[in-house]
Amino acid sequence: MTARGFYDRLAVDYHLLYADWHASAHRQADALDALVGRALGPGARSVLDCACGIGTQAVGLAALGHRVVATDLSPTAAARARREARARDLRLPVAAADMRALPLPAASVEVVVCADNALPHLLTAADVRAALAEMHRVLVPGGLLVVSTRPYDEIRATRPPGTPPHGSDTPAGRVVTFQLWHWHDDGEHYDLELFRVAERGGAWETRVDRTTYWALGRDRLAGFAAGVGLVDVAWHEPGETGFFQPLLTARKPAGGARSLFG
Q1: What is the C-alpha separation between 233 and 221, in angstroms, rounded?
Q2: Boundaries of every domain in the chain
Q3: Where does the pLDDT of residue 262 fall: very low under 50, low under 70, confident under 90, or very high at 90 and above?
Q4: Which CATH class is domain 3-152+216-251?
Q5: Which of 34, 78, 91, 190 is a plausible cystine mate for 72, CB 3.0–4.6 Å?
Q6: E-assigned strands of the chain?
Q7: Largest Cα span, the chain
Q8: InterPro entries annotated for this entry (predicted)?
C-alpha cells in the first residue's frame, strides 16, 4: 500500500492512536511553539506543516496564534484537518500536496514543520533530498525547519518486531491498536502493519493497513539537510523539548527576501 493509500484509510480514526488526541495535539503545539520561540524569538510566525495528517500539529499551532498553512499527501487526511480547524473556528488553509513539490512560493514561510515520522516514508536518498530541498526553498532566509522522526539509531540497533498494544475507549466501544514491523534484509527499511481491533455491537472487528518506512539514522538525515544548504543542523531530545519524538532543527542561511506573510 502506498503512503497516500495508508493515510487515506487511516484518516477517519487516526485519533485512536492516541489516548487523548486533543490533549496530545495541544501538548505537541506547546512544545513546538516553545522551540520556535527559542530559535526565532517570541511572537506568531508563518508556518507550513507539510505533513499535517488530520491536523495534529497544525491545529494546535493555529490555536496558539501562528499563521499556519498545511499540506499532506493524503487528500482524505487533509480534508479532515480542514474540518478539525473549522470545528474550532480556526483559520487553516489546507491542500493535498507531496512534500517533494510544495505548492508555495519561494521564501514564503518562517517555519516548516514535518512531524510524526513523516519524512521516513520517503524510501530513497534522492526523495529525501528532494523534500528537504523544497522545505529549504519555501523558507525565508533565517527560517527554521523542524523535523521529527522515531529514534532510529536505537531502533536499528535492536530491530524490534513492533509496538505494544494500546487501548482507547470510544463511544462505539473499546479499540486496541498495535504495530508489527517486518524488517528488510538491508536493516534500514521495514514494512509496518497497523492493527486496529475495534469492539462493535458486542463483536470484535480487525482492520490492518500497511506501509513502508526508511529507518533514517540521525547522522544520515542531518547530512541530507546540510547537503541541500541548511545550516545549524542539530538534534533535540524529548526530555529537552517536551515533544514525543526526537526533533531535528536546521536554518536557512540568513539574508535576502522577507516572508510573504509579513
Answers
A1: 10
A2: 3-152+216-251, 154-214
A3: very low
A4: alpha beta
A5: 78
A6: 46-49, 67-72, 94-96, 109-114, 139-148, 162-170, 173-183, 189-200, 203-214, 231-236, 247-251
A7: 62
A8: Methyltransf_25, SAM-dependent_MTases_sf
Cell numbers standing for residue 233: 543542523
The confidence score (pLDDT) of residue 256 equals 45
Q: Note the CATH architecture for domain 154-214.
A: Single Sheet (2.20)
Q: Which is nearest to 104 in space by CA: 92, 114, 95, 91?
A: 95
Q: Residues 240, 241, 243, 245: is their CA dihedral positive or negative?
A: negative
The pTM is what?
A: 0.94
What gap in Å lies between CA 129 and CA 126, rounded to an integer? 5
Helices (H) and strands (E) in the chain — how many of each?
A: 8, 11
Distance CA 109, CA 47 (A): 6
SS (H, E, C) 216-227: CCHHHHHHHHHH
